[in-house]
Backbone:
Protein backbone atom coordinates (compact mmCIF):
# COMPACT_ATOMS: atom_id res chain seq x y z
CA UNK A 1 0.00 0.00 0.00
CA UNK A 2 2.77 2.41 0.94
CA UNK A 3 4.56 1.93 -2.39
CA UNK A 4 1.34 2.49 -4.32
CA UNK A 5 0.65 5.71 -2.42
CA UNK A 6 4.16 6.91 -3.18
CA UNK A 7 3.71 6.19 -6.89
CA UNK A 8 0.40 8.06 -6.94
CA UNK A 9 2.06 11.00 -5.21
CA UNK A 10 4.64 11.32 -7.99
CA UNK A 11 4.57 14.57 -9.91
CA UNK A 12 6.18 15.86 -13.06
CA UNK A 13 9.92 16.20 -12.61
CA UNK A 14 10.21 13.36 -10.07
CA UNK A 15 12.52 10.41 -10.62
CA UNK A 16 11.81 6.78 -9.84
CA UNK A 17 14.36 6.99 -7.00
CA UNK A 18 13.52 10.45 -5.65
CA UNK A 19 11.09 13.34 -5.46
CA UNK A 20 12.09 16.68 -6.97
CA UNK A 21 12.36 19.30 -4.24
CA UNK A 22 12.84 23.04 -4.61
CA UNK A 23 16.26 23.95 -3.26
CA UNK A 24 17.22 27.37 -1.85
CA UNK A 25 18.73 29.81 -4.34
CA UNK A 26 22.34 29.21 -3.29
CA UNK A 27 22.07 25.43 -3.61
CA UNK A 28 20.25 25.72 -6.94
CA UNK A 29 22.94 27.97 -8.42
CA UNK A 30 25.70 25.75 -6.98
CA UNK A 31 24.15 22.83 -8.83
CA UNK A 32 24.74 24.67 -12.10
CA UNK A 33 28.11 26.21 -11.25
CA UNK A 34 29.46 22.94 -9.82
CA UNK A 35 27.50 20.18 -11.57
CA UNK A 36 29.95 17.42 -10.64
CA UNK A 37 29.63 15.81 -7.22
CA UNK A 38 33.40 15.43 -6.98
CA UNK A 39 33.73 19.24 -7.24
CA UNK A 40 31.61 19.67 -4.11
CA UNK A 41 33.16 17.24 -1.66
CA UNK A 42 33.56 18.25 1.95
CA UNK A 43 35.55 16.07 4.34
CA UNK A 44 34.93 15.32 7.97
CA UNK A 45 37.11 13.35 10.34
CA UNK A 46 36.25 12.80 13.98
CA UNK A 47 36.57 10.35 16.84
CA UNK A 48 33.52 8.89 18.55
CA UNK A 49 33.67 7.59 22.10
CA UNK A 50 32.52 3.97 21.96
CA UNK A 51 33.07 3.09 25.64
CA UNK A 52 29.36 2.99 26.54
CA UNK A 53 28.51 1.21 23.30
CA UNK A 54 31.09 -1.51 23.97
CA UNK A 55 29.72 -2.12 27.46
CA UNK A 56 26.22 -2.32 26.02
CA UNK A 57 27.26 -4.80 23.30
CA UNK A 58 29.14 -6.91 25.84
CA UNK A 59 26.00 -7.25 27.98
CA UNK A 60 23.86 -7.92 24.92
CA UNK A 61 26.17 -10.58 23.49
CA UNK A 62 26.52 -12.26 26.90
CA UNK A 63 22.74 -12.73 26.95
CA UNK A 64 22.78 -14.14 23.41
CA UNK A 65 26.14 -15.91 22.99
CA UNK A 66 24.92 -17.73 19.88
CA UNK A 67 24.49 -14.46 18.06
CA UNK A 68 27.04 -11.65 18.04
CA UNK A 69 26.15 -8.03 17.44
CA UNK A 70 29.15 -5.96 16.36
CA UNK A 71 30.21 -2.32 16.47
CA UNK A 72 29.66 -2.08 12.72
CA UNK A 73 26.06 -3.29 13.11
CA UNK A 74 25.52 -0.54 15.69
CA UNK A 75 27.20 2.04 13.45
CA UNK A 76 24.96 1.14 10.50
CA UNK A 77 21.87 1.37 12.73
CA UNK A 78 23.03 4.76 14.03
CA UNK A 79 23.54 5.99 10.45
CA UNK A 80 20.04 4.84 9.52
CA UNK A 81 18.51 6.67 12.50
CA UNK A 82 20.51 9.80 11.69
CA UNK A 83 19.15 9.87 8.13
CA UNK A 84 15.63 9.14 9.36
CA UNK A 85 15.70 12.11 11.72
CA UNK A 86 17.80 14.35 9.44
CA UNK A 87 15.97 14.08 6.06
CA UNK A 88 18.25 16.51 4.18
CA UNK A 89 20.93 13.83 4.48
CA UNK A 90 18.80 11.69 2.16
CA UNK A 91 18.97 14.17 -0.72
CA UNK A 92 21.03 14.17 -3.89
CA UNK A 93 21.59 16.34 -6.96
CA UNK A 94 21.46 14.92 -10.45
CA UNK A 95 20.67 16.59 -13.76
CA UNK A 96 21.03 20.03 -12.06
CA UNK A 97 18.08 19.29 -9.75
CA UNK A 98 17.69 18.42 -6.07
CA UNK A 99 15.86 15.21 -5.15
CA UNK A 100 14.89 13.50 -1.91
CA UNK A 101 14.67 9.73 -1.64
CA UNK A 102 11.57 7.90 -0.43
CA UNK A 103 13.62 5.30 1.43
CA UNK A 104 16.88 4.97 3.32
CA UNK A 105 19.55 2.74 1.81
CA UNK A 106 23.01 1.89 3.15
CA UNK A 107 25.53 -0.06 1.09
CA UNK A 108 28.87 -1.67 1.80
CA UNK A 109 31.33 -4.12 0.30
CA UNK A 110 31.72 -7.66 1.58
CA UNK A 111 34.98 -9.52 0.96
CA UNK A 112 34.25 -13.18 0.30
CA UNK A 113 37.49 -14.21 2.02
CA UNK A 114 40.00 -12.21 4.10
CA UNK A 115 42.77 -12.82 1.62
CA UNK A 116 44.51 -10.87 -1.11
CA UNK A 117 42.85 -11.40 -4.47
CA UNK A 118 39.57 -12.59 -2.94
CA UNK A 119 36.50 -11.33 -4.76
CA UNK A 120 34.24 -8.64 -3.30
CA UNK A 121 30.48 -8.38 -3.40
CA UNK A 122 28.23 -5.35 -3.08
CA UNK A 123 25.44 -5.34 -0.50
CA UNK A 124 22.57 -2.89 0.00
CA UNK A 125 20.52 -2.63 3.19
CA UNK A 126 17.18 -0.77 3.20
CA UNK A 127 16.15 -0.17 6.83
CA UNK A 128 12.44 0.28 7.53
CA UNK A 129 10.64 2.25 10.25
CA UNK A 130 10.09 -0.89 12.33
CA UNK A 131 13.76 -1.93 12.26
CA UNK A 132 15.98 -1.89 15.35
CA UNK A 133 19.59 -2.88 16.02
CA UNK A 134 18.47 -6.49 16.41
CA UNK A 135 16.73 -6.77 13.03
CA UNK A 136 19.37 -4.77 11.16
CA UNK A 137 22.15 -6.86 12.71
CA UNK A 138 20.43 -10.09 11.70
CA UNK A 139 19.91 -8.82 8.15
CA UNK A 140 23.59 -7.94 7.80
CA UNK A 141 24.78 -11.25 9.25
CA UNK A 142 22.35 -13.24 7.10
CA UNK A 143 23.28 -11.43 3.89
CA UNK A 144 27.02 -11.69 4.58
CA UNK A 145 26.79 -15.43 5.29
CA UNK A 146 24.81 -15.94 2.09
CA UNK A 147 27.36 -13.94 0.11
CA UNK A 148 30.33 -15.87 1.51
CA UNK A 149 28.87 -19.27 0.61
CA UNK A 150 30.51 -18.82 -2.76
CA UNK A 151 33.86 -17.29 -3.67
CA UNK A 152 32.36 -15.94 -6.89
CA UNK A 153 29.54 -13.56 -7.80
CA UNK A 154 26.15 -15.17 -7.37
CA UNK A 155 23.95 -12.70 -9.25
CA UNK A 156 22.57 -9.18 -8.93
CA UNK A 157 24.77 -6.16 -9.61
CA UNK A 158 27.96 -8.28 -9.40
CA UNK A 159 26.84 -10.53 -12.26
CA UNK A 160 25.72 -7.52 -14.31
CA UNK A 161 29.13 -5.86 -13.88
CA UNK A 162 30.85 -9.06 -15.00
CA UNK A 163 28.76 -9.05 -18.18
CA UNK A 164 29.59 -5.41 -18.90
CA UNK A 165 33.29 -6.06 -18.30
CA UNK A 166 33.23 -8.83 -20.92
CA UNK A 167 32.10 -6.44 -23.70
CA UNK A 168 34.58 -5.21 -26.32
CA UNK A 169 36.12 -1.87 -25.41
CA UNK A 170 34.33 0.26 -28.03
CA UNK A 171 30.96 -1.33 -27.13
CA UNK A 172 31.55 -0.75 -23.41
CA UNK A 173 32.47 2.92 -24.01
CA UNK A 174 29.23 3.47 -25.97
CA UNK A 175 27.17 1.58 -23.37
CA UNK A 176 28.60 3.67 -20.51
CA UNK A 177 27.83 6.90 -22.38
CA UNK A 178 24.22 5.82 -22.85
CA UNK A 179 23.95 4.81 -19.19
CA UNK A 180 25.33 8.20 -18.08
CA UNK A 181 22.77 9.97 -20.29
CA UNK A 182 19.95 7.91 -18.77
CA UNK A 183 21.38 8.64 -15.31
CA UNK A 184 21.32 12.40 -15.98
CA UNK A 185 17.61 12.32 -16.83
CA UNK A 186 16.72 9.81 -14.12
CA UNK A 187 15.40 7.19 -16.51
CA UNK A 188 17.88 4.39 -15.88
CA UNK A 189 16.11 1.00 -15.85
CA UNK A 190 15.84 -0.51 -12.39
CA UNK A 191 18.07 -3.44 -13.38
CA UNK A 192 20.99 -0.97 -13.67
CA UNK A 193 20.46 0.71 -10.30
CA UNK A 194 19.08 -1.98 -7.98
CA UNK A 195 21.88 -3.11 -5.70
CA UNK A 196 24.29 -0.45 -6.98
CA UNK A 197 25.98 1.42 -4.06
CA UNK A 198 26.21 4.51 -6.28
CA UNK A 199 22.44 4.80 -5.88
CA UNK A 200 22.25 4.55 -2.09
CA UNK A 201 21.92 7.12 0.69
CA UNK A 202 25.19 6.15 2.39
CA UNK A 203 28.07 4.08 1.07
CA UNK A 204 30.05 2.88 4.07
CA UNK A 205 33.15 0.78 4.63
CA UNK A 206 34.01 -1.20 7.75
CA UNK A 207 37.77 -0.67 7.77
CA UNK A 208 37.86 -1.70 11.42
CA UNK A 209 37.31 -5.30 10.31
CA UNK A 210 40.79 -5.26 8.73
CA UNK A 211 42.35 -3.19 11.56
CA UNK A 212 42.65 -0.15 9.35
CA UNK A 213 42.06 3.48 10.40
CA UNK A 214 39.29 5.57 8.87
CA UNK A 215 40.17 7.22 5.56
CA UNK A 216 38.58 9.70 3.18
CA UNK A 217 36.90 8.16 0.15
CA UNK A 218 35.83 10.19 -2.86
CA UNK A 219 32.25 10.45 -4.09
CA UNK A 220 31.29 9.50 -7.66
CA UNK A 221 29.72 11.69 -10.32
CA UNK A 222 27.74 8.70 -11.52
CA UNK A 223 24.62 7.78 -9.56
CA UNK A 224 23.03 9.59 -6.63
CA UNK A 225 25.16 8.73 -3.60
CA UNK A 226 25.99 11.90 -1.62
CA UNK A 227 27.57 10.45 1.55
CA UNK A 228 30.54 8.13 2.02
CA UNK A 229 31.52 7.06 5.57
CA UNK A 230 34.43 4.89 6.63
CA UNK A 231 34.47 3.32 10.09
CA UNK A 232 37.98 2.80 11.45
CA UNK A 233 39.47 0.36 13.92
CA UNK A 234 38.69 0.57 17.62
CA UNK A 235 41.54 2.03 19.65
CA UNK A 236 42.25 3.35 23.14
CA UNK A 237 43.01 7.00 23.76
CA UNK A 238 43.20 9.39 26.67
CA UNK A 239 40.22 11.75 26.78
CA UNK A 240 39.33 14.78 28.88
CA UNK A 241 36.10 14.19 30.82
CA UNK A 242 33.50 16.90 31.59
CA UNK A 243 34.67 17.08 35.23
CA UNK A 244 38.22 17.93 34.13
CA UNK A 245 39.74 14.52 34.84
CA UNK A 246 41.38 12.29 32.25
CA UNK A 247 40.69 8.65 31.47
CA UNK A 248 41.50 6.03 28.85
CA UNK A 249 38.46 5.38 26.65
CA UNK A 250 37.69 3.25 23.59
CA UNK A 251 37.36 5.41 20.48
CA UNK A 252 36.44 4.85 16.85
CA UNK A 253 37.56 7.20 14.10
CA UNK A 254 35.23 7.94 11.23
CA UNK A 255 35.95 9.63 7.93
CA UNK A 256 33.07 11.13 5.97
CA UNK A 257 32.87 12.69 2.52
CA UNK A 258 29.70 14.62 1.72
CA UNK A 259 28.23 16.58 -1.16
CA UNK A 260 28.09 20.11 0.25
CA UNK A 261 25.20 21.03 -2.05
CA UNK A 262 22.61 18.91 -0.21
CA UNK A 263 22.85 20.85 3.09
CA UNK A 264 25.06 23.33 4.96
CA UNK A 265 27.87 22.72 7.45
CA UNK A 266 25.63 23.45 10.42
CA UNK A 267 23.25 20.68 9.36
CA UNK A 268 26.13 18.24 8.82
CA UNK A 269 27.59 19.04 12.26
CA UNK A 270 24.28 18.41 13.99
CA UNK A 271 23.87 15.12 12.14
CA UNK A 272 27.25 13.97 13.47
CA UNK A 273 26.22 15.12 16.93
CA UNK A 274 23.20 12.80 16.76
CA UNK A 275 25.40 9.81 15.91
CA UNK A 276 27.66 10.61 18.88
CA UNK A 277 24.58 10.85 21.12
CA UNK A 278 23.44 7.40 19.97
CA UNK A 279 26.87 5.91 20.74
CA UNK A 280 26.74 7.47 24.20
CA UNK A 281 23.16 6.22 24.73
CA UNK A 282 23.14 2.81 22.99
CA UNK A 283 19.69 1.91 24.39
CA UNK A 284 18.35 4.13 21.59
CA UNK A 285 19.42 1.39 19.18
CA UNK A 286 16.61 -0.77 20.57
CA UNK A 287 13.96 1.74 19.50
CA UNK A 288 12.34 1.34 16.05
CA UNK A 289 13.76 3.81 13.53
CA UNK A 290 10.31 5.30 13.06
CA UNK A 291 10.26 6.35 16.74
CA UNK A 292 12.06 9.67 17.19
CA UNK A 293 14.98 9.72 19.62
CA UNK A 294 13.83 13.10 21.06
CA UNK A 295 17.44 14.28 20.98
CA UNK A 296 17.78 18.04 21.66
CA UNK A 297 20.47 19.68 19.60
Residues:
Amino acid sequence: MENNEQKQARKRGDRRDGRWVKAPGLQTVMGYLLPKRTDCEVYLHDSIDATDLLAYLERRNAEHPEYKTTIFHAAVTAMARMVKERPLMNRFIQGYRMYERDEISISFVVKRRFAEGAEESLMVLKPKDEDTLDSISRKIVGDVKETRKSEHATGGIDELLDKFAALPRFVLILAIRIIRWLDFWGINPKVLTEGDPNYTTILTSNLGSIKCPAVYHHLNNYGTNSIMITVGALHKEEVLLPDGTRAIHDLIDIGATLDERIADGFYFARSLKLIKHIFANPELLEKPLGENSQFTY
